[in-house]
TrEMBL record:
This is Glycosyl transferase family 28 C-terminal domain-containing protein. Gene3D superfamilies: Glycogen Phosphorylase B.
Length: 343
């Protein structure tokens, strides 16, 4: 029998899906191919890649369908990517496909007779399309700790889900003492409601705090307590040194903040299915971070928010993003693969 394989479909929006995929791929003990139209530049040694064409085109027709999220008509790239996927399934069987995330790709794999491990995300995902993806998957993977599960999640969904804990490239890093009254504001690549003007207003409103800003925003004017750092490939040192870290309520940044034992203010960005809003709400409920469901507050609210963040106990959540999270995710994928590849 040919060697069992793992395919891993990576969604193109933001950097978090690709970072997570590379982290899990490194922990897999079977051959793995990352598949997508926007894959990480630096893949772990031995991890293969299969680039896909884009799924948009001028003149395409997008229709609203209850059971599908995105199935446009008249897109050459969409036909080509599905043909590439089907060919990969044929030439790499026995295989399993991890889907992070796409309802349509998951259903296509199932219709090709390929078992799917579907990666769950936070948010209001009780629509017919998500339910179909969850029901048709052979296993579900939640890349967060079980305690972060929403209280209204159905029991059948919980029973089908394996929880890895948050995945973080910084897991296992010892905590260090932060610099008093230092703030790190960090933005990602998925889009933000934060503006340069708001950051400058926050710095003026909080003269006793030193602000350092990392990420994708263009640099504004420097100030006596404001420094623009630009994009940081590895923000670990800056996150360690900050008494308070401020950023989005995304899985990737939340996981990294937890793994480093940061006092974190998680701001919900506008994302489909209220993904970050509900994550921020749950963090607030658990008292491990300051979760802001309604986005970025005006400058006058930030002095009180920083003082509230100072009261957080980072030790309460650091273990929720431990060094074994990627291995737990990998073992779930491998067990699903074994169920279909054992003679």
């Amino acid at each position: 029998m040919p060697e069992p394989q793992v395919g891993y479909y990576v969604h193109h929006h933001g950097a978090g899906h690709g970072v997570r995929a590379a982290h899990i791929a490194q922990a897999l003990r079977v051959p793995v191919t990352l598949i997508g139209s926007r894959l990480p530049d630096d893949l772990p040694v031995g991890v293969r890649s299969m680039p896909l064409p884009g799924d948009t085109a001028p003149g395409m027709r997008v229709e609203r369908l209850d059971a599908l999220h995105y199935a446009p008509l008249a897109v050459d790239g969409l036909r080509e990517r599905m043909a590439l996927l089907a060919r990969w399934f044929v030439t790499h069987w026995p295989c399993v496909l991890v889907v992070d995330v796409s309802v349509e790709v998951a259903l296509f794999a199932r219709l090709c007779g390929v078992p799917v491990v579907y990666v769950r995300q936070h948010g209001l995902r009780d629509d017919p399309a998500h339910r179909l993806a969850y029901e048709s998957a052979s296993a579900l993977l939640a890349p967060y700790p079980q305690v972060m599960e929403a209280g209204d999640t159905p029991q059948w969904l919980r029973d089908k889900t394996g929880y890895s804990g948050w995945l973080s490239r910084f897991a296992g890093t010892p905590r260090t003492a932060p610099r008093k009254a230092q703030v790190l504001i960090i933005t990602g690549q998925g889009g933000t409601g934060l503006s340069v003007g708001l950051i400058e207003a926050m710095a003026r409103r909080c003269p006793g705090w030193q602000f350092r800003v990392a990420g994708s925003l263009p640099a504004g004017d420097p100030g006596p307590n404001l420094q623009w750092l630009g994009h940081l490939k590895d923000p670990r040192v800056e996150m360690h040194q900050a008494e308070v870290v401020v950023g989005s309520a995304s899985d990737s940044l939340v996981g990294e903040a937890a793994s480093l034992g940061c006092r974190f203010i998680a701001v919900a960005e506008d994302r489909p299915f209220d993904e970050q809003r509900l994550q921020a709400r749950r963090l607030n409920e658990l008292g491990v971070a300051i979760g802001l469901e309604q986005g970025w507050p005006a400058a006058p609210q930030w002095p009180a928010l920083f003082e509230a963040a100072r009261t957080l106990d980072p030790s309460r959540w650091q273990g929720w993003a431990d060094a074994n999270a990627a291995s737990r995710a990998a073992r779930l994928i491998e067990s699903t693969l074994a169920a279909f590849s054992t003679p």
